[in-house]
Amino acid sequence: MSAPAPPGRRIPLHKRLLVRLLITSGLIAVCSVAATAWLAVATTTQALREEQGQALADDMDVLAELSGYAATHPDWSGVTATVRELSARTGRRIALTTPDRRVVADSAPRGTALPPSAAAAVDPLHTDTYSERGAQIAGIDPRAVGPYRLTRAERVQVDALARKRQLCFSKFGVKTDLSRTPTGRMLLTDPDSGSAPDAVPDACADGRLNTPTATEKKAVKAARELARACLVEKGLSAEYAVLMGSGPGAVDVRESVSGKLGDKEARLAQPCFDKALRTQLDPYVAPAAELYLGTGDTPAVLFDMSPANKAKVVGVAGLVFAVTVAATALVAGRLVRPLRALTAAAQQPPELHVRVPVTTRDETGILAAAFNDLSERRERLEAQRKAMVSDIAHELRSPLTNIRGWLEVTRDGVVDPDPALLASLHEESLVLQRVIDDLQDLAAADAGTLRLHREPVRCDELLQQVAAAYRVTAPAELRTRAEDELWLDADPVRMRQALGNLVSNALRHTPPDGTVTLAARRDGDDVLLEVADTGSGIAPEDLPHVFDRFWRAEKSRSRRTGGSGLGLPIVRHLVAAHGGTVDVASEPGKGSVFTLRLPGGPTP
User: Fold this and answer.
1) What span, in angstroms and rounded, lies between the C-alpha atoms of 479 and 506?
2) What is the 3-state secondary structure (H, E, C) of 312-355?
3) Pair 488, 450: CB distance under 8 Å
4) Cα distance between residue 569 and residue 554, in whole Å
5) Apex 518 CA angle, 512 and 520, nearest 5
6) What is the DSSP string of 2-37?
7) Which of 3, 191, 214, 585 is the 20 to 30 Å CA partner of 245?
8) What is the pLDDT of residues 131-149, one digit of tens each?
9) DSSP-assigned beta bridge partners for residue 520
């Protein structure tokens, strides 16, 4: 821990409290902005991804439904209602135009600008989208059936054959479902996979269900005729046209005619079959159209950290940083101002005892009040120290002056060193010795070196010993009163000293016809020792000062008759060393009662 700066020395800039607060607040602001920005970017990015994923799913649904409409209608004349319904469902603008951007249908009001580019092309004969979840369309929408759609009578006939075959399958324990293709043909499918059953019981394989109807035969024949010319152009035999299936879906020659054509011939024949089928279906489907999604000139919402967005983030971060630093500077200034006043006051000379104004009620205000209280106590202690030095000098000077004066006149032969003079000098030395002993006891108590030699002390005997020591010279009556079997764990010499100081003090203030009583009684686990007198008593305003050093209620009395003013402070320290307390109660004109409360000791 570094030592504090000496008074008057300028504190380095980087060590000032205000600068540290500003740096700390700046770091907190930067970290907060960075964390908030990162969280906002991460959250927004995730939300936008989810939104874009949902928008993409909606776009796929829109494209699939419009492709289905085109596959089942020869033109777009009635698509407006479908477009508006899709727009209301997805919350997106939907517009269909011709390849040259002529509007066919639009969910937005007339005159609204189109997005800058089309989202997709709607062409049921050339598409790679999904009409149903999990089933990819291979070039031609399966809902475009055109001339392959069965007549009502044919559907009834095929339905009957399908149910008959389903019943046959069930007899052999094979469960199947019935599903209808876009052409109207009924098929048997596996309940689990949704595809055709893997095995067909021999009894059910009559071939009638899969036999093409008259409508299908006519449409297939027309398609084969269209394919023949293309096959010849490719250098293939026109007879390969018979390999086309009986449905409107494009045929993968490489799989369906394995062994009949080589890979090269199959690759050449496949485009001819697809072209013939598209040519055949073209009159039955709507023409190709462009699909626009969005609103006005704004396409789908994207998150872009462009330079403008980066500039916004940096600007907001800088603004937050500036506001944080400004607020911190304002608050820190209010915090540092009283601290500076405290520092300036603490650097003043000690004899000035400077105070600081208390302007707040927070911790700084409490600190200022404590500083003022400390300054007041230091001023009071300084005054007490000066008074004590003066009192000690007076206490020592008086007996020393008397001793010196009598010795000088004896040396000069003015008086003879008779027994009376020697007795007077001996008395003065005793006064001097008593003051020095009292000061030594107080110094030991203050330093915590006051040694006690504890032993079991019987209270009634202790009181009798103290009374016997003062009874011979006591001008007033001296009594003792103690309960039986009261013991203390104490130093008997120090206890006699403390009680003796109290008795001596009481006898000085008690008239000859008065009484001084020493009593001992039990109060719970404590023992109370009381010294009561019937003397002059102590004024209420003087009671708080009776245990102060060198304090006397009667300033006019001499130290020889009134004591040194150290007896009661010594009593307080001696009792405190034994773990007890001392109290005084007094009434002017009726006397005083000093009570020592000490922990009781066990009976030996």
Assistant:
1) 12
2) HHHHHHHHHHHHHHHHHHHHHHHHHHHHHHHHHHHCCCHHHCCC
3) no
4) 17
5) 165
6) PPPPPTTPPPPGGG-HHHHHHHHHHHHHHHHHHHHH
7) 191
8) 444 334 457 888 888 898 9
9) 482, 529
End-to-end Cα separation, the chain, in angstroms: 54
Q: Which residues contact 40 (CB under 8 A, 6 or more apart)?
A: none
User: CA of 251: how far to CAs of 147, 245, 258, 321, in Å?
Assistant: 17, 7, 12, 69
Burial 517-540 (b: 16+ CB within 10 A, else e): bbbbeeeeeebbbbbbbbbbbbee
- The SS3 assignment for 498 reads helix
DSSP 432-475: HHHHHHHHHHHHHHHHT------EEEEHHHHHHHHHHHHHTT-S
Tell me the pLDDT tens digit for each residue of 273-286.
888 888 888 999 99
Rounded Cα gap, residues 455 and 177, in angstroms: 111
* pTM score: 0.44
Residue type, 310: K
CA distance 492 to 469: 14
- Tokens (6 digits) for 245: 């299936």
Specify the DSSP element, H or E, that contains 270.
Answer: helix 263-281
With beta carbons less than 8 A apart as the criterion, state whether 516 and 503 touch. yes
Strands 477-482 and 515-523: parallel
- Alpha carbons within 13 angstroms on the beta-carbon side of residue 113 total 7
CA 64/CA 71 separation, integer angstroms:
10
SS3 282: helix
Q: Is the pLDDT of residue 75 over 90?
A: yes
Closest CA to 231 of 192, 195, 257: 257
How many CA atoms, within 13 angstroms, populate the side-chain half-sphere of residue 133? 3
- Which of 360-364, 480-484, 509-513 is least confident? 360-364
Say how many C-beta atoms besides its own lie within 10 A of residue 422's C-beta. 12
Token pair recorded at residue 264? 């090269």
The residue length of the chain stands at: 604
Specify the amino acid at residue 415: V
Q: Which residue has the tokens 């999990």?
A: 134
Q: Is 548 left (phi over 0), alpha (psi -120 to 50) or beta?
A: beta
Phi and psi dihedrals of 132, rounded to 5?
-135, 145
Please identify which residue in the block is written with the tokens 């209010």: 334
Cα dihedral 144, 147, 153, 154 in deg (nearest 10):
-80
- The pLDDT value recorded for residue 532 is 94
SS3 content of the chain, % helix, strand, coil (to 5): 55, 15, 35
The CA distance from 148 to 126, in Å, is 19
Closest to 309 in 3D by CA, of 317, 299, 320, 297: 317
> Helix 263-281 vs helix 214-233: angle between axes, to the nearest 10 degrees?
120
| 520-557 pLDDT tens trace | 999 999 999 999 999 988 888 888 888 876 666 655 44
In whole angstroms, give the CA distance from residue 463 to residue 496: 8
Selection from 243, 250, 220 nearest residue 138 by Cα? 250
| Alpha-carbon dihedral 253, 257, 262, 263, rounded to 10 degrees | 30
